[in-house]
Amino acid sequence: MVQLWARYRQYRARVVTAFVLSTVRKVMDVVPELLIGAAIDVVVRGADSFVASVLDVPDRRDQLIWLAVINAVVWVLESTFDYLSSLAWRNLAQQVEHDLRVEAYAHVQGLDMAWHESRPTGATLSVVNDDVNQLERFLDTGVDKLWTLALNIVLVGAVFAASSWTLTLLAFLPIPVIVVGSLWFQRRLQPRYTVVRQAVGRISGLVAANLGGMATIKSFTAEDRELVRVGAASEAYRVANADAIRASAAFVPLIRMAILAGFTMTLLLGGWMALDGTLEVGLYSVLVFMTQRLLWPLTSVGEVLDLYQRAMASVRRILALLDERPVTLPGTRSLPAVQGRLELRAVRAGYADGPDVLHDVSLVVPAGEVHAIVGPTGAGKSTLLRLLLRFADPRSGRVLVDDVDLRELTWEALRGRVGYVAQDVFLFEGSVAENIAYGRPTASREEIELAARQAEASSFVEAMSDGYDTHVGERGVTLSGGQRQRLALARAILRDPAVLILDEATSAVDNETEAAIQRSLAEVSRGRTTVMVAHRLSTVRHADRIWVLDAGRVVDAGTHDELVDRPGPYADLWAVQTGDLTTERTGA
Questions:
Q1: Which domains does the chain have, with CATH numbers?
Q2: pLDDT at position 587, please?
Q3: Where do the ABC transporter domain residues begin and end (predicted)?
Q4: pTM of the entire structure?
């Protein structure tokens, strides 16, 4: 909580205001017990009562009327301040929840792609959503309850101290037991709720992954197996929660026994003192009520501790996420204009602590030319594209655009000038037009439709029920793979980038659509640097230069005709795809 206090300095005045409102409410809450004692004192002592001496009203009925009026005012004030304090705490909790969630999401967006790829999406989601919600629940009610409990002890203690030190000592004897018990339970609960939050993260990760892979689950009739896996994760969460609940539930019976001891002492000794005449009857009734008021609210300590431990487990996970630091940081340099010349100089690259995927790769893509990267699976093609987009940095060597190292550029200077079409196209929840305009939200409808025509997407879009306003659904699941790729190509074209990067942009289209996209690529790549990765060599045969990768090294390069005319991996692959090479010759 100290870290949150330091992090959100702008809300300190609101926190103080909330505490003040809670304090006034609690003071008003204690007054009715005092009024009950005063009323009994009026009935018993009449003209000699405390009220008579203060208000100079000898008649008992008039005294009771005064007490009724004061009681009504107190209740109105208590209700008013209860509303105001509740409003203050809840609004504060909602604001902190909002800020922390946005901060956590912004931080996650700034982390490297390698971090995202190494962590289950559901685990991140559980922190950004569920853990932040747990903190909000504690700020909403928990802090107020803790403060009220502390005030209750102070205010009631003051009443007891003014009445009888003997009864004060006896009534307060259970409190050390409750405090020690609370600290003991807190130590027991902390590791249990850490396990609970971890179990929540595992469930979230598993469910998120399964929902994303539902087509695969169904195609392999794995529903029962996945149900068992989710059930096992849910059971682990239930067991972890049950363990924490057993520990927290045992707390209230302990407090009840302590309350019993304190209440009994006040009831007996206070009663004997009233009978002996050493304690006024009205004051005795106040102390009996106050003992209940003092000790009974402590039964909620278990509930508050439960909220506190859940919140602290969540805060630790949130702060751990915020402590993650990106490895790939933006530079400070911007470019007034990007010509599009790309170069890799003696680049080595890999993933995390694994072996190198690219070995001493050097290549140059002159501005305005179309170059292709081909090679077998695992050759390092996608890794090379990650370097061009600066999703990762090379282990050694340099990646340059217009002779400037990518590490020197701001994200806008680099990625703001690049159009990217991934092999696994991601479409967002929204309309077709919104997805095409994602990289350029200010584009007009005419520009969106032009980009769709250039990507050979206009024909199927216009055939949809609502045309460009058709809702495509989450991840574009209502569209075919080829349709999604053409929309992604339109999205890249609309951005009018200096560099266009295509990762298997025609992998999910038929031959007719591939030919149409090739025609559009010939148009949109004119005067624009284009780098494309492809397995289907027919897609890249018209490239200005083709780079052949194998085992992370450039093993050949040239135009399509040059590579086909000389023996090598490209010629062999071309022969396989055109049916001119036998299976025995390729070793397949």
A1: 2-323 (1.20.1560.10), 342-586 (3.40.50.300)
A2: 37
A3: 342-576
A4: 0.72
